[in-house]
Design goal:
globular, alpha+beta
Length: about 650
């Protein structure tokens, strides 16, 4: 009954999505404005119904209802409760229902809370959101029904991919999906503004919280996903330029450019066409990411679908939504007024350069990710585009972007003088020059990009604090603190990336029980190998005793796990975090001589990567809170006037 109720709620929500689209379109017709009165209530009920459908899917997973095909294929009665719950979206159909649910709830939130734009534009926005939802409802109901029944219930399920049986599954996908759907709302606002010819500061102020919220969540999701892959896959790296990793990076790059552009439009009434176009591009990238992981063209632990027909369905949706939005933009761009003027040397000018660099990096990642797929589709030849391409092509642009990011907040709005800007940058430039001198004279050769990364991290860190110089810190707006912390987080993450690339020490050894091996400043002794059993797995667990330069010993216990359902072998790394880095250990196979393979890494300051990512998201959250508080005070003043 639960599955049937969930499916019924899904069908009703789809019907309401169609009604919302039709009534929204009718309300935009001259003389039929009264039809718009139904659009808000319908959007709210639709959101509630999708939430009910998703709750029903969670229920059948938690109760291990093996009469539901999706549960039998992706769960088992022996699985711990956390993974039964999180396993709801650890598969293709469940993740798409999560997408649709967040889409419906977001539309309901816009209908309930949005009061900053005209009623006509709001109706157009909700109609656009309904059009997006309708396509994904059709995809779910006709191609990926999550509530499909088995003719005969299975005795037990096939289980969840062991690599996904990690607490990261409960956090990483939901944050990414919330970010993707936040970009869909920004897209709908852009379409609504084009339809009603209201591309102005009010439209930007309405869209900005959604863009900022989406950007925060994407930042958290990517940061968490990076650390999850780092400790779970056992290869010792934090970013592999995997196509599915890139699928989440591309929307983040576009959202970062959109965030800067929409801020300029909201506060200075400039970059109108830029903002609309970037809203379309950002949502396009989230759709491209959806296509990549659900089309069956990629083989990855992250990829869900292996059915090309589903990929064709999503590709058709991508063509309809993005093609339609681009056509609408082409038709209406001539009606988008230019907005306020500004000089090249100004904060707006720096933000334009920032957006151009972000767009260029996005293009590099896009081409590097999709080019091998196009070549394989046309010729059957398999190509591999990996870190050397991305690092060499995008790395220099990323470093230049960091320089512009450091200078931008120190410039004045509208107009500034280059000489005065250089004076403001004098201290960061001096500090950077000193660090450069020290690195060149004292540090061992570490490569050009890591060297530049370390130098720029220091310079950006100093420049990010510059907006606080001479201020009364108690009276500094919260969103200014957010900007400072986010930019400082970029500097911290950049320093971590440079240190990890420059100073990591790796040792691959074969050791017998009792033997000691060296990695960096650490001595690591293999003390024992013993079998252990977990809730739904067995493992061989190594006991490693490590000490740093003869100091106090500590124990690490990496594992090699075996999973019966589905039959899989995985490695579970053991990591010791110190103030200046991490000792990372992985247990391999036993060779013919009775020796055990061990992979040992010493990664100085690698934790700065994820600390910086957290700081960026925290800074974004402070900015969002500060903007909302300021707007609320403004609305209160208007109400009392």
């Amino acid at each position: 009954m639960i599955a049937e109720g969930g499916l019924a709620a899904l069908w009703l929500a789809a019907a309401l999505s169609l009604l919302q689209l039709i009534m929204g379109a009718v309300a935009l017709t001259p003389g039929r404005e009264e039809a718009g009165a139904i659009v808000r209530p319908v959007a709210i009920v639709q959101g509630l119904l999708t939430l009910l459908a998703f709750a029903a899917l969670i229920a059948v997973f938690v109760t291990s209802d093996m009469s539901v095909k999706l549960v039998a294929a992706n769960s088992s009665s022996m699985k711990p409760l956390l993974y039964k719950f999180a396993g709801t979206w650890g598969n293709h159909e469940g993740s798409m229902l999560m997408w649709v649910t967040i889409l419906g709830v977001a539309g309901a939130a816009v209908a309930i809370f949005e009061r900053r734009v005209s009623e006509r534009m709001l109706i157009a926005t909700l109609a656009a959101q309904a059009a997006i939802g309708l396509g994904f409802f059709a995809f779910l109901l006709f191609s990926s029904n999550p509530f499909e029944r088995l003719p005969i219930p299975a005795a037990d399920g096939q289980g969840l991919n062991p690599l996904l049986q990690d607490p990261g599954l409960a956090f990483h996908p939901p944050t990414l999906y919330l970010g993707y759907v936040g970009l869909s709302v920004a897209f709908s606002f852009a379409v609504g503004a084009l339809v009603t010819r209201e591309v102005n500061a009010a439209f930007a102020r309405a869209m900005r919280p959604w863009v900022l919220g989406a950007w925060i969540l994407l930042t958290l999701g990517i940061t968490a996903g990076s650390y999850w892959a780092y400790y779970e896959l056992g290869w010792g790296g934090w970013w592999f330029w995997d196509p599915v990793e890139n699928a989440s990076l591309m929307p983040w790059l576009a959202a970062t450019a959109l965030l800067h552009s929409v801020t300029v439009l909201a506060t200075r009434d400039s970059l109108r066409a830029w903002t609309v176009m970037l809203a379309v591009v950002a949502f396009s990238m989230s759709m491209v990411g959806t296509f990549l992981v659900r089309s069956g063209i990629l083989t990855s632990v992250h990829a869900f679908a292996v059915d090309p027909e589903r990929g064709s369905f999503i590709l058709a949706l991508l063509a309809i939504y993005i093609g339609g939005a681009l056509a609408l933009f082409a038709l209406r761009v001539s009606t988008v007024k230019e907005g306020a003027q500004f000089e090249a040397v100004s904060r707006e000018g720096a933000l334009v350069v920032n957006n151009l660099l972000l767009t260029a990096i996005l293009g590099i990642v896009f081409v590097g990710t999709l080019y091998p797929l196009f070549v394989e589709a046309l010729s059957g030849e398999k190509l591999s585009v990996g870190p050397p391409y991305f690092n060499s092509a995008a790395g220099p642009l990323a470093l230049l972007l960091v320089v512009v990011m450091a200078a931008g907040p120190l410039m004045r709005w509208r107009r500034d003088r280059f000489r005065i800007v250089l004076n403001r940058l004098a201290l960061p430039i001096l500090g950077t020059a000193i660090i450069l001198l020290l690195v060149v004279t004292l540090a061992p050769p570490i490569g050009v990009l890591p060297t530049l990364g370390l130098i720029l991290a220091i310079g950006v860190g100093a420049a990010s604090l510059a907006p606080l110089w001479g201020r009364n810190l108690r009276r500094t707006p919260l969103f200014t603190w957010g900007m400072v912390i986010a930019h400082l987080g970029i500097a911290v993450a950049l320093a971590g990336m440079a240190c990890e690339s420059a100073f990591t020490k790796e040792t691959l050894v074969a050791a017998k029980i009792g033997e000691t091996r060296q990695v960096g400043p650490f001595s690591v002794r293999l003390d024992d190998i013993e079998p252990i059993a977990g809730p739904n797995w067995t493992a061989l667990e190594a006991t490693l005793t490590a000490s740093r330069n003869g100091g106090t010993p500590f124990v690490l216990k990496p594992q090699s796990r075996s999973w019966p359902n589905p039959p899989t072998e995985t490695t579970e790394s053991a990591i010791s975090t110190k103030w200046d880095g991490q000792l990372y250990t992985v247990l391999g196979k036993q060779d013919e001589d009775g020796r055990w393979q061990l992979r040992l890494w010493w990664k100085p300051f690698v934790t700065l990567i994820w600390l910086g990512g957290g700081m960026v998201a925290f800074g974004g959250a402070l900015s969002l809170l500060g903007r909302l508080r300021r707007e609320r005070r403004y609305q209160d003043r208007i109400a009392w006037a």
